Amino acid sequence: MKIFNTLTRTKEEFVPIHPGKVGIYVCGPTVYDYIHIGNARPMIVFDTLRRYLEYKGYEVNYVSNFTDVDDKIIRRANEEGVDASVISERYIKEVKKDMQDMNVREATTHPKATEEIPDMIEMVKTLIEKGYAYEVNGTVYFRTRRFEEYGKLSKKNLDDLRSGNRSLLVSGEDEKEDALDFVLWKPKKEGEPSWPSPWGDGRPGWHLECSVMSKKYIGDIIDIHAGGEDLIFPHHENEIAQSEAANGKEFARYWMHNGFLKINNEKMSKSLGNFFTVREIAEQYPLQVIRFFMLSAHYRSPLNFSAELVEASKNGLERILTAVKRLDALSDEAKAANLTEPQKEQEQALQVYMDRFEAAMDDDLNTADAISVLFELIKYCNIHMDAQSPKGLLAQAAAAVKQICEILGIETETEQELLDSDIEALINERQEARKNKNFARADEIRNMLADMGILLEDTREGVKWKRA
Ligand code: AMP
Ligand code: ZN
User: Fold this and answer.
1) Who wins on pLDDT, 160 or 441?
2) Hey, whose CA ends up nearest to atom 5 of ligand 1?
3) CA 368 remoteness from chain centre
């Protein structure tokens, strides 16, 4: 698979650090309110990446944090007169509900910043010991210029940054050695949550969280680090500086960034006020439609949110779900039979569509092209599969469409239990194929049944089967 790596600005062949395993870290939301559908884009895109890598046989360790200590959370807590943790716990629950409704799977681990403070303090200590950080009046800063590769992800030049940041020097942060230095630990202010540290009571800086949590749950080096493109600078640049300075190792191999979800060609964001929450949208559309809409564009392209485009996705999705239902219904009624020559060609055609789907996904997760292939596959099935098609072929066609939907995180909802009689019919078809020395067909039927959770065992008394 090729991945566009923001670090090199090129598509690179994906090679995991440990064969067969992938560690992915995705920067998660700050939990002070309901998420908007812009925030949903990285969730959906990188959940699809995870599903696809798992389909390809990788064991994926998927880590995505909740930023549960932050100015916005504290502000909201003060407004409501409650503890900051009341706000963050409330919205973590709401985010998880939205994720579930969008069919975004739970991460392997969803660390929370407030539960990882001791490790953050350790990393700050290491950075101070190594000369990469210093403390002034209870604040610890990262000495940006000490990290020579600073700017390598965002391709920013330190001197340009410096002139842009000069205003900071006169805005009360003149205790910094350099305007470019950023905060690792900030001292407690009245009414804010805080934790004891060697530099006094305080709380961690945002960038530090991700460096520490990715290290703890994945390791010093992570395979894929992902997030929205607004995080490239300064967030990800600072994560690299902290982690590489502290660990003395490369931080992340591949950096993936999704483009913005826009509305009227402006980035959807809380601060611009031009957003819809996932919850609001859920009142108008099943969230599957939103998921499908998000995947209809390549993840690096900007995507404009409009009622027409969502409506088009809704219609497209209905076409797919109708086709699955039709194939399932035909397959229920059909008889098992050996494939005729034209039917063998149809079987091969199904494989070609699957190969093309994979080729699109292998090309930097091109879900836009992958969905085009899915539509072609649906069209092919609608034209070529009918009541005369043998059961095995229909089941294979349905399985192909469902497999693609499963990778895209689209529920087909028609996954019926295979009837015992269907299973027996397929087993008989397999026995017949073996008798005719058509072992390829026999294996195919076994694999198809395995995909549907039916395990075969060849015994002396004949074929036994069970549901996995
Ligand atoms: P935040 O809570 O603002 O840190 O955002 C959480 C995630 O959503 C980050 O990965 C952001 O890059 C991403 N994000 C925020 N707004 C948008 C948008 N309009 N389009 C795409 N991604 C976004
Ligand atoms: Zn992060």
Assistant:
1) 441
2) 29
3) 16
This prediction has a pTM of 0.88
Q: Are 402 and 324 in contact (CB under 8 A)?
A: yes
Closest by alpha carbon to 432, among 448, 420, 421, 445?
445
Q: Using alpha carbons, select from 445, 434, 432, 376 the residue that is nearest to residue 404.
A: 376
Residue 193 maps to a domain: no
Per-residue pLDDT reduced to its tens digit, 91-135: 999 999 999 999 999 999 999 999 999 999 999 999 999 999 999
Expressed as residue numbers, the domain containing 437 is 415-468
Ligand 2 midpoint to CA 255 (Å): 12
Q: In sequence order, what DSSP letters do the residues of 366-416 get, joined into one string? A: -HHHHHHHHHHHHHHHHHH--TTS-HHHHHHHHHHHHHHHHHHT---S--P
Whether pLDDT at 315 is above 80: yes
Decide: 231 and 269 in contact? Cβ < 8 Å: no
Cα distances from 87 to residues 84, 186, 202, in angstroms, run: 5, 21, 19
Nearest Cα to Cα of residue 1 among 48, 41, 42, 64: 48
d(CA 268, CA 93) in angstroms, rounded, equals 23
Report d(CA 94, CA 31) in Å as an integer: 9
d(C-alpha 246, C-alpha 210), whole Å: 13
Helix axes 367-384 and 341-362, enclosed angle (nearest 10): 170
Atom number in ligand 1 closest to CA 230? 12
Pocket of ligand 1 (CB under 6 A): 27, 29-30, 38-39, 41-42, 227-228, 230-231, 258, 260-261, 267-269
**Which atom, in ligand 1's list, is nearest to the CA of 28?**
6
| Rounded alpha-carbon distances, angstroms, from residue 321 to 157, 158, 175, 328, 350 | 50, 52, 61, 11, 18
Q: Is the pLDDT of residue 61 over 80?
A: yes
Number of domain units in the chain:
2
Say how far apart CA 405 and CA 97 lie, in whole Å.
21
CATH of the domain at 39: 3.40.50.620
User: What are the DSSP E strand ranges found in 49-116?
Assistant: 59-64
Share above pLDDT 90 across residues of the chain, in percent, rounded to a whole number: 84
Is position 357 within any domain? no
Whole-angstrom distance, CA of residue 328 vs CA of residue 416: 8
